[in-house]
Amino acid sequence: MYKVLLVDDEPLAIEGLQLMINWEKHGFEIRGVCSNGEEAIRMMQQDRPDLVVTDIRMPVMNGLELIEEARRLEHESVLFAITSGYSDFNYARQAIRLGVSNYLTKPVDSTEAEDMLERLRLELQEREKQEQIREYTNQQRIKAFLSAQIMGQKDSSEQENSDIVSRLNKSHWTYLRIAFQGDTQQACSVAEHMASETTCCYVIERSKGIMGLVWGDEAPSEIGPSERIKAFAHLLMSNMQDNDCINISIAVGLTVSTLANLSDSFRSVKEVERYLFFNQERLLFAEDMEPEILPFDPETLSDVERINDLLENGSADELSYAVRNAFDIFKKMKAAPELIHIFSTHIMFRGLSLCKELGGEPHALMHKSASRILKGSHRKIEEVAHCLENFCLDCKSALAILRERQVGGIQAMVAEYVQSHYKETFTIQELSERFFMNPVHLGQSFLRKYGKGVLEVVHDLRMEEAKRLLQETNQTSSAIAEQVGYRSYQHFLKHFEKRTTMKPLEYRQKSTI
Length: 513
Description:
Elements: E1 2-7, H1 11-20, E2 28-34, H2 37-46, E3 51-55, H3 63-72, E4 79-84, H4 89-97, E5 102-105, H5 110-150, H6 162-167, E6 172-181, H7 184-197, E7 201-207, E8 210-217, H8 225-242, E9 246-252, H9 262-276, E10 283-285, H10 303-313, H11 316-333, H12 337-357, H13 362-374, H14 381-406, H15 410-421, H16 428-434, H17 439-450, H18 454-472, H19 477-483, H20 489-500, H21 504-511
Parallel strand pairs: 1-2, 1-3, 3-4, 4-5, 9-10
Antiparallel strand pairs: 6-8, 6-9, 7-8
Helix pairs in contact: 2-3, 10-11, 10-12, 11-14, 12-13, 12-14, 13-14, 14-15, 16-17
């Protein structure tokens, strides 16, 4: 609703304006009434209206003097409409000089008044639209300018950016980077809302799982910039956790005193992120860290060949132990995260290559276990270790099936079919017809070879996929049940609880802690 102030020294005139005109219909509400110009000026200072409807002839300060005084006090955005029982051309001429073109003759005609309100409403809406466009443009220019400062790019057009610099008149600047998993839109919304509520804070970097903020502040003398940025970062973390943003970590760079040094704050964030990779903490500040060089020793890659050999020839237990042992060494020596990424990538590419050499299709294995590490999206060393171990075990299992298929085992072909079609509904009878086998013999031979019946393997595969979806998506349990192949949610629930001893919601909550 647009705010209206009525000004007239005649109570009956005020009452007529209130009762005869349907203000709300046109998006206006009367916020106050005054009997003279001086009183109106005081009220405008307290609660700036969008429209002032004023009589011309009033004691103390008349309507035209009121408009002149309002302009002098820089109430430039306020619209004025004049009501008067006088048709003196001199009044009209003065009103036009003051920029007022809305004139109602007393007694006010309601139809004429509402026509005027409709015009004014459209004018105010257009003003708001143009203001939003200007503000958006300014925000984008500021973000582009700050991005350039962060990257250390010196903009030669200093005169063009002088208005931006004047708006960014803060004495302390800090770069923060948020890393998270889960709903990107939700996380961005929380951070952007908090930035908008802060005097000088801009979201200038956004990608999948990453947001970067520039925080500027003019700290009062009794509260240092260090305490203020820490309070802001803690509140940001709390707000994101309260809004179900998953696995959040925030790296806070050094606070610098000029925009020209903002790139120093950005570089310090990169160092903080390396420490977050090894720590359980979710919020770290560059100023609290001791300088330390994380080793980048290629000798630490020596375990790659051992793990690759175990992929082909070792047992699952030996493989798991080797991966965990390598990461224990990484944690003790605090190896550079980039080196750990190279280590993991080498192993994954070798596993995918072996799969392809044996005639397999590595895309499913890539999607299931490898893609997140290859994208470098893990924020903690434990996450990388867990994902690499799972990949190795999945890869070893896939290689075993491929080798069996190469020697012509019909059961391996059935297992491969089940692996690819477990989300579909089929019976042992349908499988036996597909592979030209007696259904009883098929079921018994499959059980002897793999230690589990066909349907049990189907349920196991569905449960593994359901657990992945519960961890990595926000889909409801019922939607996941249907997606992995269950027509009955109760049937899904029965098998899920049997294998995990938990309900789906409990599993999701536990897995995201």
